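Re: export button greyed out
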Amino acid sequence: MTDNNNEKVLIKGNYAIAQAAVNAGCQCYFGYPITPQTEIGEYLSGKMQELGRGYVCAESELGAINMVMGAVSTGVKAMTSSSSPAVALMQEGLSYAASDELPVVLVNVMRTGPGLGYIYPAQGDYNQAVYGGGNGDYKIIVLAPSTVQECIDLTYRAFYLAQKYRNPVILLADGILGQMMEPASFGKYPYPEVDVSSWALTGAKGREARKIYSVATDEKKQIQHIYDLFKKFEIITQNETTYEEFNTEDADIILTSFGSMTRNIKAAMNVLRKKGIKAGCFRPVTLSPFPHKRVSELAGEGKDFIVVEMNMGQMFKDIKYAVNGQSKVSLVNRPVGEWLSVEEIVEAVENIVAKGLTVVNPGGVEYAASV
Amino acid sequence: MQQVFSIPESMKKDFRYTFCPGCDHGIAIRLVAEVIDELGIRENIISSTSVGCSVFLYDFLNIDCVEAPHGRALASATGVKRARPDKFVFTYSGDGDFASIGIAESLHSALRGENISAICINNTTYGMTGGQLGPTTMMGQITTTSPTGRNKEYFGYPIKIAEHIALCDGTAYSARVALDSVPHINQAKQAIKKAFQTQLDGKGFGFVEILSSCPTNWHMTPEQAHERVRNEMIKVFPLGEFKGGDK
Amino acid sequence: METNFIFAGFGGQGILLAGTVLANAFMIEGKDVTWYPCYGAEMRGGTVNCEVVVSDSEVSSVHKQDTDYAIVLNQQSFDRFVKRVKKGGTIVANSTLVAETRPRTDINYVFAPMTKIANDLGTSKVTNVVSLGVLASACPIVKKEFLEKGVEKVLGEKKKDLLPLNIKALNSACCEAV
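Workaround output, generated via the alternate export path:
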């Protein structure tokens, strides 16, 4: 496999993520198999051994996330990868890692749920990633790639942001991105190395011993700690919020999605424009921090939003919150199954425009979500 | 005048004793500190801590520590060691952490032969939460969740941790010791030292189970508690080296 | 313009690889292309398929219900995917294992004895490459020169010695196509 150059290669998203991690200087990988992301661990097993880096077939996802936490506490870059029901098992670790300010990188290649679900692609873990399943108040940085090229670019960014802000980062991909191939190039890891010497555990030689922990028997200290974490996230929100826009300037309605669905809404936008409907596209790259401010600005210009996603309206709620009644927000969704096709999206948008619907479930049961 | 007793170098100078009166954690932590001093490894240590009374290790020792959630100390320690194989990595857990909620992490660390050292305090109960039935609670033992005593119908049987760990091919050293008497305390220190030396020699997983008293939750005086260790616990959990000892 | 292809057959017939070669060929030609497999349980026995979508601009979606071209190497795949070919589209079938029937009148049929051609070349393992040759003769946007480069890329340095056989498989098929 090619690395560190600009040649385009036809590559699977899973392999792209794995090789990008290697290029980013990921020193350790810990993981447990689950479809549709198993290729990441398979690829890295050979590669990490070849490079003399750390690799463990963990006994469980609980083990895997905690191994990452142990490894990154020493200042190295490390990661794990998994898929939806198994990422649920890692929520305990993420809460600890956020509180302990450990630069954990976790890749979630989403499949269907709830429960075991099945191995098909899905987008049902938006809430799990953005709002978290762990206890207490904490925030995770969530990056959502939409192409294989972005699987590479955002894997690089995940490792950088994790260490820069000492905050866990989730790369939220899906089964389509994990399994599909597309031309992409690796280039070089584009970020500077972050100085971790002020906090990394290296043994208390010639300095005070360092303790990384979240146990807080002192109420005042715990209150301050949580405020500090949230202040840090305000800085992250200011500096790191990213999104993509297409044809929003003259748009009356803005199609919004995240991840690999973005390709479909862009194609639908082109069809709608030919049909005389002034459509634009908006796509958050960072789901957390979410670009609430930009959405609010666009809504303030009177532009309506139509959120297209493969879940029961999870990102929809963030858009609603950002729009805050300034314009109309509708939902085109399917909980799981075949990705909403360009044709389905176009038809749904036409129905929303013509009939004033707020929720359209193409090909599904009529479900007027209490939205 | 010759100084015959002092606080080990590896212990913090300003620690505040937070364990219950008569608790053996204080002895166990001191033994660990003495061994660290004697091996001269303090500045090279990264420890993954546990949850339970054993969590307070990091309030006593002047070493780098990273927290792990309940039961995950051995996974965390695996991560530390794989990231920094040159560092000395050890864990210090209770029986609930090591052998109940964390048994998968513990057992698999031993099976993988992780070159780390693990110490497990067995006091037959969950101390911090107020004395509930745990994985090592003995048959007939009364706890807050076995008010008429541990019976096999509801609760099954206790685990003999050191023997199980000894069965793992990746384990280089496994021993059970007790803290009920001076000779046993001396043996315990030697076992900890052997487990640590096992890691320094790169031989693989080193493990010591320490039978300890919990006077508060056993509703006993410290003396009675040590008698229970001596007269009851050791019968069920025999002392000795189950792997890697001198024979 | 956007065109999509579905390759389908038994596990072991090199279906995913055939799609990979085609996708590489399009990439080398400078087009936007995606490749997407059925994955998981379906791969373990039974039929396997993958989709290739190529576009002059940006691929609109990687997974579609209907297809411009279906390349089917066994009977089950013919029966399943003949229904999914777009009106005016083409099904390219391996007549060694597929009966020459024409259940629809609104699509084109190309039958070629792909397994037989491969066996005549010495190994049924190149059936998938033979199918690409047949496709090239039936689909103007699939160009043989880029398929050859695609095969070369997929084989890589490690399997370079197999290149002559595969090039032969690509070309011998073109002559046989009806």
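Chain A has two domains: 9-240, 245-360. The button fix ships in the next patch.
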